[in-house]
Amino acid sequence: MKSVAKITFSLIVLSSLIFTSCRKKELPAPKPNTGDVITTTVNMHSNYDRIIYFNLGNNKVVSETNKLTWDLAFSCNEGTQYGIMNGAKIMYAAKVTDKTFEQISNTSALTTGAKEQIASGRLDSMVMKDLGIYVIDRGYDYDGNQQGYFKVEVLENSATTFKGRFANIDGSNDQTITLQKNAEYNYVFVKWNTTGAVTNPIIEPKKDSWDIVFTQFSKVFYEPEFTPYVVVGCLTNPYKTLSCYAEGKTFDEINLTVAENTPLSTDWDAIGYDWKSFSLNQSMYDVYYNKVYLIKDQNDYYYKLRFVDFYSDSGEKGSPTFEYQRL
């Protein structure tokens, strides 16, 4: 377990160095005018401590929060229920099936069965998609300090209710909480506090109020070897929002017709992080402004978007500047 922690910590340090609207489909209503090209900047801070939710239609930040303010979240949708971990901290979880909650007294389950949170949003990538007992590695803070461990038994996870039993690995601070879910949000959030009760912070704004979120998230690379670490990028709203990389298309040539005939993805990380890369020669990030992305929001409006900078006017990293246009 210590070797895993050392590797993960080194990857965190490495990651800090490396690294459209359309008309509604209500024919025969006429198309609205194409929107102006809008350029805007969000500030995640140089240590990427901010999670920023953005509304394209209003061109504004809906809300922002600190990335360390939550550990787990449980879906409020009426379909398949699942739980996610805070990928911005490189959290891990392992499901335990051979012991009761009381019998778990160490983190050995994480040695062989640990899985990280993948940002695609695909159900087969979810670590906590069933009821049962899990050992949780809370990941790392801004300075690479391990945040500790806890165990949780998911007793109920329906569209309306989450019920879970939480405790330190040694069994102390044992508590059971029940949370009522709200369908106006994507998730109900939980933070484990080793010195007190489990808390229930509100992290995301209402699900119909935002389109994209700027955050850190876990990414697994399989070449040249299996390597998970944290990256900085842009994810889409799980609620009725689609996106894709418009490969081979320039920003100027993409119009509504192109957008409507381009397959879009439900993957949350279809935009992701690789619109930039770290230049070792210049010791700074390069942004690929020729990479263009399409987004279809929950109201069926299309946008085209590209990134043009990753630095503030004062030269501080962590300030993505992007331009986008309603089609």
Care to count the β-strands? 20
Order of helices and strands: HEEEEEEHEEEEEEEEEHEEEEE
On the 0-100 scale, what is the average pLDDT?
Answer: 88
Instruction: Briefly note the structural class of the backbone.
Output: mainly beta
Sheet having the most strands: 6 strands, antiparallel
In helices, the fraction of residues equals under 10%
Tally of individual helices:
3
The strand order across the widest sheet is: 7-6-8-9-10-11
Rg (CA only): 20 Å
List keywords for this structure.
327 residues; 3 helices; 5-stranded antiparallel sheet; mainly beta; 8% helix; 6-stranded antiparallel sheet
Structure description:
The protein has 327 residues and is mostly beta strands. The protein folds into two domains: 21-66 and 233-326, no CATH class; 72-190, no CATH class. It is 8% helix and 37% strand. It contains three helices and 20 strands. The strands form five sheets. A six-stranded antiparallel β-sheet has the order 7-6-8-9-10-11. A five-stranded antiparallel β-sheet has the order 1-20-19-18-15. A four-stranded antiparallel β-sheet has the order 3-2-13-14, with helices on one face. A hairpin with a 3-residue loop joins strand 9 (149-157) and strand 10. The model is unreliable at 1-32 (pLDDT under 50).
Summarize the structure.
Helix content is 8%, strand content 37%. It has three helices and 20 strands.
List the helices and strands and how they pair.
Elements: H1 2-17, E1 38-41, E2 50-55, E3 60-66, E4 72-75, E5 83-85, E6 92-96, H2 109-113, E7 115-116, E8 132-137, E9 149-157, E10 161-167, E11 175-180, E12 187-190, E13 212-221, E14 227-236, E15 242-245, H3 256-260, E16 276-279, E17 284-287, E18 292-296, E19 302-311, E20 317-326
